[in-house]
Design goal:
heterodimer, A: 417 residues, alpha/beta, eight-stranded mixed beta sheet, 11 helices, 18 strands, B: 92 residues, mainly beta, Folate-binding fold, four-stranded antiparallel beta sheet, two-stranded antiparallel sheet, 6 strands
Chain lengths: 417, 92
Amino acid sequence: MQHYSVASLLRRAVDPVASWPAMWRTPEPQAQYDVVIVGAGGHGLATAYYLATEHGITNVAVIEKGWLGGGNSGRNTTIVRSNYLFPESAHLYDFALKRYEGLSQDLNYNVMLSQRGVAMLAHSRHDMESCTHWANAMRLNGIDSDILSAGDVKRLIPFIDDSATARYPVHGGFIQRRGGVARHDAVAWGYARGADRRGVDILQNCEVTGFLRGPTGAVTGVETTRGAIRAKQVALTAAGNTSVLATMAGFRLPLQSYALQAMVSEPVKPFFDTVAISLATGLYLSQSDKGELVFGAGLDLYHSYAQRGNYPVTERVMASAVAMFPALSRLKLLRQWAGLVDVSPDSSPILGPSPVEGLFLNCGWGTGGFKAIPVGGYMLAWQLATGAPHPIAAPFGLDRFSTAALVDEAAAAGIPH
Amino acid sequence: MLLIACPFCGPRPELEFSCGGQAHIARPGPPEAVSDAEWAQYLFYRDNPKGLARERWRHGGGCGQWFNAVRDTLTHDFKAVYPMGAPAPETG
């Protein structure tokens, strides 16, 4: 395994024949592992990485029906933030943001974290009251936030329409300056490389078709398109496809799968150095390092397993963007796509044991899974290694739906659903 | 853009409709006999199938009426439309 450093870069700069070695192996499935993780996206790969690095458990397979990082890990808008309202969520998402801050060093892989700030924009007096409440709640939870005046917003985003006739008037907002963007593929690849070099098998093109069950009904492995694989514990990190796997295992979950669209414009010169989220339209906007503007907004509001969105939502997103930022009106969209997100009734994740013995859950991240990859992986690894939830993950068990102890973050999830 | 056949108005664009989620969910009762786990199933747990789903839809931008539909969640294809209260049709 190649350790990346300035020296390794220089060596290849002067010796163009030398190639970079493959970042991970392509192993054949073994008959048995200690832990099998279903879904090689960020959360699954991070789980394997933290099992290996934090708990010394390396007899692990991450199985993936397609290619690693090809689902939501490769389809999101790359925003990281921890601007949540309730203490439970604040601690959960800030754990992830703190891990992101050291992730490039930890993984020896540049995830291109750019803490350019995430600004929530208020368009009315009532929005502004919500923003003030929200920013103060964050501070009480020990997370940075600064309230923005209308003038602050105009200085931050000079091309926003703040005229007297603006469709979405500028009243101010708040900013989390530690928020920003990270390179989404690099996060999946970095965790994959880190897990692989510690002995984890990443099995791509290997789809789960059923579960092996013991005499008591406990899950003892998975049936796959590449044969049966036995495991002491099985974990699901399959985002929008989790319900399909749960149905195979014989139980339901409080999840609904939706298509969440994202889109990018043609590249233009740098002119926008923060992330803006509009409370009125749900629009979120940033500029990538290549210069493309990256847009996202609401869900296609009917259940879907199609990894593509429909035109009316695309049109609504672009209409919101052009109304707020008229200078964008002549930009062309280059690409539009959708990811398959699993939304829970309180827009908070589900972490911990499933109703079936031997089977564990990391799902329900809905529209905000990317920013949570380090915490989702860390908490699932903790659960698998210790047999109990980490204190930060404890409020997010499946049992909260029968005890009614919901963590209702529908608003702070940032988009309408 | 989907074209959805409202049983009262005929085919209309999807912009006029909203999806009300899974159909045929019966409220359990009597309330004092229902366990917390059963309430959770009723309130929060859903089928979320990949393939045919039975759903409630409302033509809010037209007649305002609710109706049921069988829809494929993978292709978004509406297989059947039927009145509220009617049993789900066999679809192939």
